[in-house]
Structures are given as C-alpha cells and as structure tokens.
Design a protein that fits this description.
2 domains; 5 helices; 80% helix
C-alpha cells in the first residue's frame, strides 16, 4: 500500500529494472529474517519483518505489471490486464493450498498419533483433556 504508488511513479521515470531490484532485495532480506524465527521470537519482530516484505512486494509487483503492460498495443491491454489478474489470483490460491498441505504434513509428522492418525487424533485427545 505504501510502496506501490511510489514504485509506479518511479517506474515511469526510471524504468522497470531499477525499481524491481531493490524490491526483490527487500523480499529476500525478509525471507532470510524469517529463517531465524524461533518459539521465543516476538510478534513485534515478526510484524516488522512482514512489513518489510510487504514493502518489497509493493516495490516489485507494480513495476513488473506496469512493464508488462507497456509492451502491449492499446487494443490488447484489457485482455492482458484480465489475464494478469486471473494468473495472480490462481497462483495465490495454488500457493496457499500447497503451503497448507506442507504445513499440515509437517505438523502431522511431529504430533503424537495417540492410537489414531495425524492431527484428528491429537485434536480428539485434546478436547477431553480440556473438559475434564
């Protein structure tokens, strides 16, 4: 929200390549910071890291899309805009689904089965323990 309008204006003046690189560096830096997260990491630190990641995404996504649109003829812009939006939404959905499966698998392998299988059995064991 903060960097997208700024990146859009700078892209018009300086070109796509000079704007995307700093945005990508911010994203990479935030990924590196997220590799250091532990059980005792403060929520404030996570918030700062995710904020920096958002700055990087706003600084890289807008110029990339603007650069893609600048290469098109005027008649093709409407279809290309729709296609980019569809690809972005589908990509985000697939990425979210893949990450949910990976997270679920990682959690299931680390939680005790307790006579059942996976997360369901652990949840069933936790409910009576909370009630009794």
């Amino acid at each position: 929200m903060i960097t997208m309008p700024i990146a859009g204006k700078l892209t018009d003046r300086m070109g796509v390549g000079k704007i995307v690189l700093p945005g990508m560096l911010l994203i990479i830096a935030s990924f590196v910071a997220l590799t250091q997260v532990t059980a005792t990491t403060s929520y404030w630190w996570l918030g700062v890291v995710l904020f920096v990641m958002g700055l990087g995404m706003g600084g890289s996504m807008m110029p990339v899309f603007s650069g893609a649109m600048q290469t098109l003829r005027r008649a093709a812009v409407a279809r290309a805009s729709t296609s980019l939006n569809i690809l972005q939404q589908v990509g985000a959905s697939i990425g979210t689904a893949v990450m949910a499966v990976v997270l679920s698998s990682a959690l299931a392998s680390r939680l005790p089965a307790g006579g059942g299988e996976g997360l369901g059995a652990s949840a069933e064991e936790a409910v009576p323990a909370m009630m009794g």
